[in-house]
Amino acid sequence: MNKDRLKEFEAMFNPQSIAVVGASSGRKMGGLAVRHLQLAGYKGKIFPVNPTEREILGLKAYPSVRDIPDPVGYTIIMVPAAAVLRVIDDCAAKGVKVVQLFTAGFSETGEAEPTRLEREMVARAHRAGIRLIGPNCAGISVPAKLIPLETTGVIGQPGDIAILAQSGGHTETLADIGLSRGIRFSKLISFGNACDLNAIDFLEYLKEDPETRIIALYLEGITDGRRLYQLLAEISPIKPVVLLKGGRTETGKEMAMSHTSSLAGSAAVWTAAMKQAGAIEVSTLEEMADTLMALQELPPITGNRIAIVSQLGGGAGGAGVLAADVCTSLGLELPPFTGEIKDKLKSIVNAPGSILRNPLDMSLMGRQAALLRKVLGVLAGLSDYDLIMLNERPTFLLALVSEAELQAINDVLVDFQHSNKKPLVVVSPPGGVHEKERVEVERRLTQAGIPIYPSFERAAKALANIIWYWGFKDKYQT
Amino acid sequence: MNKDRLKEFEAMFNPQSIAVVGASSGRKMGGLAVRHLQLAGYKGKIFPVNPTEREILGLKAYPSVRDIPDPVGYTIIMVPAAAVLRVIDDCAAKGVKVVQLFTAGFSETGEAEPTRLEREMVARAHRAGIRLIGPNCAGISVPAKLIPLETTGVIGQPGDIAILAQSGGHTETLADIGLSRGIRFSKLISFGNACDLNAIDFLEYLKEDPETRIIALYLEGITDGRRLYQLLAEISPIKPVVLLKGGRTETGKEMAMSHTSSLAGSAAVWTAAMKQAGAIEVSTLEEMADTLMALQELPPITGNRIAIVSQLGGGAGGAGVLAADVCTSLGLELPPFTGEIKDKLKSIVNAPGSILRNPLDMSLMGRQAALLRKVLGVLAGLSDYDLIMLNERPTFLLALVSEAELQAINDVLVDFQHSNKKPLVVVSPPGGVHEKERVEVERRLTQAGIPIYPSFERAAKALANIIWYWGFKDKYQT
To answer: What is the pLDDT of residues B391-430, one digit of tens each?
Structure first.
């Protein structure tokens, strides 16, 4: 990517100032966008643009973009579609380089006039050297630059995952999930109808972006499939790409047409091609978040041999049976504990009801932090296992132990994580009598960098996804 | 089922008194079982049995069951396996009719001596006319009789779902999930190794039990497959049975052998047979809970035509695309809104960015309670749809509306539910910035009898399950 193009993107992701056209003092979107920038603590200048108001949320308002005296780095348009051409002309006159359009009512309507309007807008922008993001999108958020999502105002934690999504709602949803699950972002980009800048453009940038290590991509359709394939095949060996395709079914396809004016294409051909390119295809936003978390927190794991410590404090037998079913049916292996391993475990765990298999059922001994520490110590030393999974359900533990003891058990997990001896994943299903305490446990473990999942099914799927990817990368490199 | 056998079960599910053998004042299981009965407010007499203590948790303690002066309705044994035979003899001398064994360390160990001990225990019990539940189980909970789960102390809400599970942990887990999701229970029965009373016996009872309308069954293995098939085929046309089989994979099978001494058999043959018998087979505890909630709250729905109102307040387009993909790939149909319906919707929803398809994207108009009320009114009147699904994510709504307005939106849903015009299901994903408010919304809607799911995937699976069942029942009756 040449310097000029990189500079274009710099104006989007590190703007020195932002104009909001259609800003107002009320609770309309334009007002919210300004307010959200203020609340997030954005350090650049904010220029509200409104033809009738002179001050908005304590900031001087300008009748048009032309009237702003300072240079304008980035412009967000939130006025109705009918007013957009005039604003583009204003931006051209001002010398604005990048415009993002929240405004909807263009080609996604499927109607002739709005589609013509979109084309005219693109033509005028290109004549003036303006690049367009959208229309019909929720724009860009850059947590490290304190630029929040303009609609919800959510600002994610800074990190190295880029979200690139044709749906603004999905960037907002992933940011929201990320905050509670510790998934951290470099950029969140929604590009809606992609009338100008599209998935290919942004992917070319993210491939180079030093702040992005992992890419999440939501697409509803693509005009240049060959280039997308080629680009993903170039990126995958360098950075993992987690891909979710909307419109895989007929009904979804029709909805995608109305949503972002996208032709969705055949699902089977698509999936085969994406696999060949090395992209990790997922089928829901939840699976996308789960997989991103595994990529973010776990080292490159190419082996699929899992040791499971089943439900601490009780109910570990049945939970272990279902965990084994779910994990093995998703392609993970649970090699049995045999010979010497079994002897070592037996010297620690010997309660009636305990089961020295894999999954390991510590029975009532699972409530003793000191024993858990020893068990993890044994498992950490085994080269026959690539990863440890453990599940806890605070309702069970808190029936038997105090909150301090619950904390001691989780101290063991945090210490183990910090020891870096073996990757650890925790399953902790939400809901139940002690949900408050569970959320606190999840918060602690998440902060320590332990990926947490609400079920074995979701954990196993995420792990299978990343193990597949690291295997792909290994094969590619040899 | 004859009167004598019914009487046997009466002693389990409505005991006038309960003896806990192995009770103590400490935090051991025996003490917890007594404490949990007290906390739950159990109305019958509780007799702690301990050879060395004279008073336990304010109750007079007895050296043995023989020494209890009153009649003993039900006995829970929590002493080590080695002491069990003597306790059984005591129970025989006292004339106890039903004994439940929490104690583990019998045939599930796979070892000769414990297996022999289990057989000897059964022989002695039978000679004395005692029926055994377990060993290696968490016993019985009857919410309406204020009998909690002995281990966690959780007492579910009374209702008409019976849980019958070879795993005590699963009864505990389902009770815990049930409390937060409004799933209500008639009985929760865990029967562990099933050395005497087994799944068949309990199913025969639940088939007749007037307090049970829906049955959830977790099995790890079965000795008499033919009888089970026959019985499920008899029950299914009367009461839906939701079935989860542990040990469907080789690893799960081995774990099941160690957990409850069960031989698990071939998965494919099993699944085909269960389907023919009319049982709803599920593959995780989450899917079981989801399906139970749909059966509990929704009327018999045999049609699969769904109208979707996509994400209120924002992000409805992308959410609608994925909802359509997920629902149709799980066998639900989303007939498009056409002609007159579309016109009616257009007269209510006409914001830019809104999509008058199914899923319906109300765009920013989805934050207006009055408009939502009108939209639901239109959908309720359409005979082309069997059910309405709607999703809300409070993070989106609360970026745009006040808490009072959020409440007004949910008032609309509650009112709609009470109008009984069309079944309604809500999807409300957990996590995110406004989780506290979301939990409150979930609580309100749950109380109103609206089934809530954490994702479209889980909602669609549960719906597909019950639609299949009601279709099976219809076919059976014609």
So the answer is: 998 888 988 889 999 999 999 999 999 999 999 999 999 8
pLDDT given at position A424 = 98
Bridge partners, B239 (sequence order): none
Global model pTM greater than 0.90: yes
**Strand bridging mode A55-56 / A45-49:** unpaired
The answer to whether B316 touches B402, Cβ cutoff 8 Å, is: no
Contacts of B352 in chain A (CB under 8 A): 80-81, 103-105
Per the CB < 8 Å rule, is A166 touching B318? yes
Q: State how far residue A70 is from chain B, nearest Cα, in angstroms.
A: 30
Nearest CA in chain A to B149: A399
Confidence band for B264, pLDDT divided at 50, 70 and 90: low
pLDDT at residue B265 is higher than 70: no
Q: Which one of B170, B325, B355 has the shortest CB-CB distance to A246? A: B325
| C-alpha distance from residue A40 to each of A45, A144, A149, A175, A385 (Å) | 13, 11, 10, 14, 44
Task: Check whether B263 has a pLDDT greater than 60.
Answer: no
* Interface residue B336 vs chain A (CB under 8 A): yes
The pLDDT value recorded for residue B451 is 98
pLDDT tens, position by position, B4-36:
788 889 889 999 999 999 999 877 888 899 999
Is the Cβ of A105 closer than 8 Å to some Cβ of chain B? Answer: yes
Q: Provide the strand spans (E) within A347-392.
A: 355-356, 360-361, 387-392
| Domains contained in chain B, CATH given | 1-136 (3.40.50.720), 137-297 (3.40.50.261), 300-474 (3.40.50.261)
The bridge status of strand B55-56 relative to strand B59-60 is antiparallel
Cβ distance of B104 and A363 shorter than 8 Å: yes
Low pLDDT (below 50) residues in chain A: none
Q: How far out from the chain centre does Cα A117 lie?
A: 33
Q: Which residues, numbered 109 to 138 in chain B, qualify as contacts with chain A under a Cβ-Cβ cut-off of 8 Å? A: 136, 138
Kindly state whether B155 is in contact with chain A, defined as any CB-CB distance less than 8 angstroms: no
